[in-house]
Fold each of these.
Amino acid sequence: MIGFIIALVSGALMSIQGVFNTEVSKQTGLWTASSFVQFTGLLTCLAVWIFAERDQSFLSLMKVSPKYVLLGGVMGAGITFTVIKSIGLLGPAKSAMLIVAAQLIVSYLIEVFGLFGVEKTGFQWMKLAGVVLFVAGILIFKWKS
C-alpha cells in the first residue's frame, strides 16, 4: 500500500512542479528556470544526503554499471524542459495525460522486452487492453463538446 501512496504523491508533485516551473520560465526564461530547478534539487538532495546517507560515498558512483544508467541527471534536464514546454503549449491537464500515457507505454515496453536490466515480463493482452483504455480515456478527455 505504501508504494501506491508514494506513487500518488509523486504524480501530484510532478503536476504541481510542472505548473510552478512553467510560471517561473514565463517570468525568467526556460533555461534559467530549468537551471534553478536542477540547482535547488541538487541542494535539497545534498542536504538530505548529509542527514540520511552520509555513510555512502559519491565515489561509489564510479562502480555503477552499466555506465549509461548515470544519465538520469541529463534526462532530468530534458524532462524539466519538455514538461515546461508542454504545459505552456497544452496546459497542465492535457500535458499530464500525455506525459503519463508516454510513461505507461514506454514502461510497459521496457518490461515486455526486459530493457535496461529490468526483469522481462513478456507480453500480456490484458495489459495492452489497459493501455488502449487509458489512451481512449485521453481522447475522451480531449474531445470537444
Amino acid sequence: MNAATEHTYRRGINPLHGVLLAGTFVLFLGATLSDYAYMASYQIQWATFSSWLIAFALVCNGLAFLCGLFGLFVAHDRRRGLIYLALLVISFLLGFVNALTHAKDAWAMMPNGFILSLVVTVLALVATWIGFTNTGVRKSQ
C-alpha cells in the first residue's frame, strides 16, 4: 500500500521587494494625508512633508519596479506580472508629475497636488495588492 501525499508550495514575494512595495504605498498615502492636512490648515509644513514623502515614494517605487522586472523572469503568470509592472510605471510617472506639482509654491499646488496624490495612492494600492498576490503555486507529489 502506497500513500501519496500532495504538497502545495506557494512562492511568496521577495522580502526586499515586499518592503519596497509596501513602502511605496505607505509613503504615497502619507503624502495624500499631508496634502489633506495642508488643505485643512494652510500650514506650509504639511506641503513640505508631502514633497519629501513623494520623493521617497518615488525611490521605493523605482526600486520595486526593478525587483518586479527581475521577478518577471521567473513568474508563472507573466500577464499578471506585466499588469503589475505597468501599474508601477504609471504610478511612477504620475508621482513624478505630482512631485513637480508640489515643487511649486504651496498655494499654487492646490487642489491639483491633492488630486494627483489621491490618484497615485490608489494606483499604488492596486499595484501593491497585485504584487503581493502574484505568487506562484507549485504542486509536488
